[in-house]
Amino acid sequence: MRVLGVDPGLTRCGLGAVEGRPGAPLRMVAVGVVRTPSDDDIGARLVAVEAGIERWLDEIRPDAVAVERVFAQHNVRTVMGTAQAAAVAIVCAARRGLPVALHTPSEVKAAVTGNGNADKKQVGAMVTRVLRLDAMPRPADAADALALAVCHVWRGGVQQRLAQALAASGSRAPSGRTVARRPDGGGSAR
Amino acid sequence: MRVLGVDPGLTRCGLGAVEGRPGAPLRMVAVGVVRTPSDDDIGARLVAVEAGIERWLDEIRPDAVAVERVFAQHNVRTVMGTAQAAAVAIVCAARRGLPVALHTPSEVKAAVTGNGNADKKQVGAMVTRVLRLDAMPRPADAADALALAVCHVWRGGVQQRLAQALAASGSRAPSGRTVARRPDGGGSAR
């Protein structure tokens, strides 16, 4: 399974792709950042983010896209740009029929480091270790995008094993949707 | 000048187009709403909003698109959907090279009714009167989209006269951008 993680943003939109399956070593496919100039207008910036993500989807051909779920925070202006960049990533993936998953920052941190309150350095260090990289990916947005993709693969595995266990015991899974198709639901680690 | 106003939303995205110029009667070209089912996932909803707006742009062929500027509000989940629908509208317009303007709710209310704190009924009544309609457009999202388009035409006129007056007096306009291309700047009526 190949997953593209997107850490949305207008100034820097982190993109990171990994390949693998739960329980086996993961491999990094690509990592990078799409940047847009802060003095461009919002229309030009969103079009540039869209073009960048489209190029990645063309080249990477992921099976699923994992985008960070955006919450309203203190810095209102920043969070709006983040939400709008996330919308562009979601539309790009959904237009191609790719499953889109939204993971909260806590879910990603918990999945990758075991601690939902881990800091950026801890997340970056674990991503570097899990993907057996020579150095921590920079900037942090790029490492965060890889963490999202790792989280997606691993959480998918957990969800799959849960569904299999429930199927074996004759019960049904608690939700008709898998994690990979659960963009509206709340996360367990929120 | 033909302007498409967009009152962004996932459940109901209001769309309203007007034609005219400042100082002359305005004409309504079209009004309507794009709806998406609340139990669809966010990807499907944003793709449906995009398809709806693309259809409108194909048919209406506006010279500019005016989108309501979204702020973080109390209902976090709703405002995120609104911001994401706005992003889709902005991308659709900017991809075609159309000027995109963001107007705050206060700017729209002030332009249309003379009162930045007007309620929805007052805005709807003024839109009905200004466009000489037989009845108030419904739902409110549709009336709000028309109000955005009216606001855009009228504010454009004010900005143009200001620029002309400054040019005549040998000064430069306070900003290199016109209102119609001012998506990042703050509004005066915030």
The two chains with the largest interface, and their residue counts, are: A-B, 31 and 32 residues
Helical stretch count of chain A?
A: 5
CATH fold-level topology of chain A: Nucleotidyltransferase, domain 5
The CATH class of chain A is Alpha Beta
Number of domains of chain A: 1
Q: Any guess at the CATH architecture of chain A?
A: 2-Layer Sandwich
Structural class of chain A: alpha/beta
Element-level helix/strand string of chain A: EEEHEHEHHH
CATH superfamily of chain A: Ribonuclease H-like superfamily/Ribonuclease H
Q: Strands across the major sheet of chain A, in which order? A: 3-2-1-4-5
Report on the biggest sheet of chain A: 5 strands, mixed
**What is the strand content of chain A?**
15-25%
What integer value in Å does the Rg of chain A equal? 16 Å
Could you explain how this protein is built, in words?
Chains A, B: InterPro entries: RNaseH-like_sf (IPR012337), RNaseH_sf (IPR036397), X-over_junc_endoDNase_Mg_BS (IPR020563), X-over_junc_endoDNase_RuvC (IPR002176). Chains A, B: Keywords: Cytoplasm, DNA damage, DNA recombination, DNA repair, DNA-binding, Endonuclease, Hydrolase, Magnesium, Metal-binding, Nuclease. Chains A, B: It is an enzyme of class 3 (hydrolase). The structure is a homodimer of 190-residue chains. In chain A, strands 3-2-1-4-5 form a five-stranded mixed beta sheet. Chain A has five helices and five strands, in the order βββαβαβααα. The C terminus of chain A is likely disordered. With 190 residues, chain A is of the alpha/beta class. Chain A has a single domain, classed as Ribonuclease H-like superfamily/Ribonuclease H (Nucleotidyltransferase, domain 5, 2-Layer Sandwich), CATH 3.30.420.10. Chain A is globular and about 55 Å long. Helix content of chain A is 46%, strand content 17%. The interface between A and B is medium-sized, with 31 and 32 residues.
